[in-house]
């Protein structure tokens, strides 16, 4: 631990001997280190030479530059860890008061009571250590903010972002998606990928919790489900396999709700498994908006040894599916009202025949307009898919 460096600024030469004699034990132990100047100009020069000075004992009445002017110069440095203790005659209370009003840490009167000065220095050191601790924590927070910004970019980068995602299918399939995290990083995710010439896998998911733990669990879950889905196994088998791995390694009882489906591009058949997720909506080309059945299966990663169930629906040409996380329906306004399924259905009825990107944009806009100034409390993720 390096010593506290103290600058004494006084035109009385005998003060140097007085201080070094009184604090000799602390100097010998390496706790204090004194440097000396005889006026404000010399003090500024010493501060350049010794930038690690943390306490300044300054007389007020000095030649060339007095203590009050020196104090003003020190204030311009805006260093909260630099503490100034002003020294003056007992009858000079006007200047002492001005010094305190101008930001001096404390004061001592001449003749100096060195025992009292020692206590004042220790108080200053406590404040300096507190400031340094706050600065360290601030630096750590700034570093963490930088890491979170990078993590957010990485998280967004691993989600599909290029549209159309399957250029050879633009005449057969329209698809768009969006994930807006409530914090720097989120626990929601979506995905879609080509399994073979005739089949597309697509999914949406919502990890329990928020922030960094949810983001890490999100990355692991997405990678596992995608890698398993690319093998071409049924959605139920994919989710059952993913559940066995996630449940056996789950930390802090984390889980993820998932809706995973496979679309047959040629026939429009959709095989899907809903593991505890919000039921998506089917938008019929007739203009009808229909919610799929509620999930009968639990969340992924919650219970070991569960077999998940396969379900099926028919997506005719012109029909669309809209998948979403509960950040949409549970978005709250300043009156603590939820956006809810009824408002979502009204929005969907307005965009039944719109392209998928417009669907996603309109839903986000309606949720944002409803929430108003209320803080976003959950990740908001939407995926829309239409068979042309």
Q: Which outline best applies?
A: elongated
Distance between the termini: 72 Å
Helical fraction equals 25-40%
Q: Spans of 5+ residues with little confidence (pLDDT < 50)?
A: none
**Average pLDDT:** 91
Q: H/E series, N to C?
A: EHHEHEHEHEHEEEHHEEEEEEHHHE
The total beta strand count reads 15
Strands of the widest sheet, in order across it, are: 2-1-3-4-5
- Structural class, by secondary structure, is alpha/beta
Which descriptors apply to this entry?
25% strand; elongated; alpha/beta; five-stranded parallel beta sheet; 15 strands; 388 residues; 39% helix; single chain
Description:
The protein has 388 residues and is an alpha/beta fold. Helices cover 39% and strands 25% of the residues. It contains 11 helices and 15 strands. The strands form 3 sheets. Strands 2-1-3-4-5 form a 5-stranded parallel sheet, sandwiched between helices. Helix 3 packs parallel to helix 4. The longest helix has 45 residues, at 114-158. The protein is elongated. The model has no long low-confidence stretch (mean pLDDT 91).
Architecture blueprint of SSEs:
Elements: E1 4-9, H1 14-22, H2 24-28, E2 32-37, H3 40-49, E3 53-59, H4 67-76, E4 83-89, H5 93-101, E5 106-110, H6 114-158, E6 173-180, E7 188-196, E8 199-207, H7 211-229, H8 235-248, E9 256-264, E10 269-275, E11 281-283, E12 289-291, E13 311-314, E14 320-324, H9 326-329, H10 340-350, H11 356-371, E15 380-387
Parallel strand pairs: 1-2, 1-3, 3-4, 4-5
Antiparallel strand pairs: 6-15, 7-8, 8-9, 9-10, 10-13, 11-12, 11-14, 14-15
Helix pairs in contact: 3-4, 7-8
